[in-house]
Amino acid sequence: MNPEIKELYMRNHIEALAEANHKAAKTMERMGGGFASALAVAYYRADSNNKARILAAWPDLFEKYRRIARELAETTET
Question: Which DSSP letter does residue 32 get?
Answer without folding.
Answer: S
